[in-house]
Design brief:
alpha/beta; six-stranded mixed β-sheet; 13 helices; 41% helix; disordered C terminus; Leu_Ile_Val-bd
């Protein structure tokens, strides 16, 4: 956009016209003396808001919005000034390249913190820009171990990682489901491939055998070729590292080919959307959640009521986590009495907070302490917990 050039006289005339035509009701902060005006604190919320993962992204963004609105209702002051939190939502399309563009826009806009990104593939490249700018990044859904292995002091997650999920799923598959011959498919994303690698290693450590390893993409819809190849190996279980948009059609095509193997995924599959896409063919599938089940989340019932009232819809998956992530950063600002990342960032690592999702405290690398993993089975179109969460991969017990 090119800036308009106007003369001083024209500027004065425009200002006078604006005053004469102002709305009768003005923002109280705008009409108050400058010293008492609200200080706007911008919080970036990065998610896929379009495309096949938009249902996840909108849900995650809603969690940020709700936490910010509640904080605004508290009429907080920082460094002696009243503050208002403003959520800046961006669509990263779950694409690494777009995510870095979003990150740069956030940095340029002067956001005080970022909640997100939703996917590991988007979050990891974006995190470098936030680290360079010294901006706190609190993730509510990023599960790749690499996220917190970069040596940055500004990256935190409030959810268990894929290493824990892979171990829990593999242990359950081999020891509880008695599946010894296992095939693995992944979508070649940072999330899907990393998760599949961890699952495969844990499977072999538990005494299972990986009879076939295949690959697809996170935009594919036809899996008949790779499934035909897998069918020849007579697997007892097929594990998919990826998201529900591919997992739903995949399991339908499995059944069409006559493959009766158990289908298993992780948190990318543990959604209502998977149940919808897979229909009756998805019945009996297993998936994990990198966190406690909603029945065991200490604040889920109250949060669910607030969420439905505010957004007139059901929680998809990560809204409780992004809500808690936003509360974490605001709580750190309160303790530092500042929204300046240079002042509050050190407080994030000292967090001790009871969240909707459970107690929140961080390891030195930014991982949540005692991350939990819960396993589920799809029954009657609904995910039902089959294993209680634990502080490590023993969740599959």
């Amino acid at each position: 956009m090119n800036p308009y050039r106007i003369t001083a006289i024209a500027a004065a005339a425009l200002t006078l016209a604006a005053c004469n035509n102002a709305e009768p009701q003005k923002d109280a902060a705008a009409s108050a003396p400058a010293s008492a005006q609200e200080h706007v604190v911008k919080i970036g919320s990065a998610n896929p808001l379009t495309g096949p993962f938009a249902h996840w992204g909108r849900d995650a963004d809603n969690g940020v919005q709700l936490a910010a609105e509640e904080a605004n209702a508290e009429k907080l002051t920082l460094d002696g000034k009243p503050v208002r939190f403003e959520v800046v939502s961006e669509d990263d399309q779950a694409d690494p390249k777009v995510a870095t563009q979003v990150a740069q826009r956030f940095v340029d806009a002067g956001v005080a913190a970022v909640i997100g990104h939703l996917t590991s593939g988007a979050a990891i490249p974006a995190s470098r820009l936030y680290n360079d700018a010294g901006i706190a990044m609190i993730a509510g859904s990023v599960t790749s171990p690499k996220f917190t292995q970069q040596g940055y002091n500004n990256t935190f997650r409030i959810i268990a990682n894929d290493l824990q999920q892979g171990q829990a799923l593999a242990k359950y598959a081999v020891t509880e489901l008695k599946s010894k011959r296992i095939a693995v498919i992944d979508d070649r994303t940072t999330y899907g491939q990393g998760l599949a690698d961890d699952f495969a290693k844990a499977t072999e450590a538990a005494g299972g055998t990986i009879v076939k390893r295949e690959y697809t993409t996170n935009s594919a819809t036809d899996f008949m070729a790779i499934l035909t190849s897998i069918k020849a190996e007579k697997p007892e279980l097929i594990f998919y590292g990826g998201m529900d948009a591919q997992a739903g059609p995949m399991v339908k095509q499995m059944r069409k080919l006559g493959i009766q193997a158990v289908f298993m995924g992780a948190d990318g599959v543990n959604t209502a959307e998977f149940a919808k896409l897979s229909g009756k063919d998805g019945e009996g599938a297993y998936a994990s959640s990198a966190g406690a089940s909603k029945e065991l989340m200490p604040g889920y019932a109250a949060f669910n009521t607030k969420y439905k009232a505010r957004f007139n819809g059901e929680i998809q998956a990560y809204a409780p986590y992004t809500y808690d992530a936003t509360r974490v950063v605001i709580d750190a600002m309160k303790r530092a009495n500042s929204a300046d990342p240079k002042k509050y960032l050190a407080e994030v690592g000292k967090t001790s907070l009871q969240g909707v999702t459970g107690p929140i405290a961080f390891e030195s690398n930014g991982d949540i302490k005692n991350g939990t993993v819960t396993l589920y089975r799809l029954e009657g179109g609904k995910w039902a917990g089959v294993a209680k969460p634990a502080g490590d991969a023993s969740a599959a017990q």
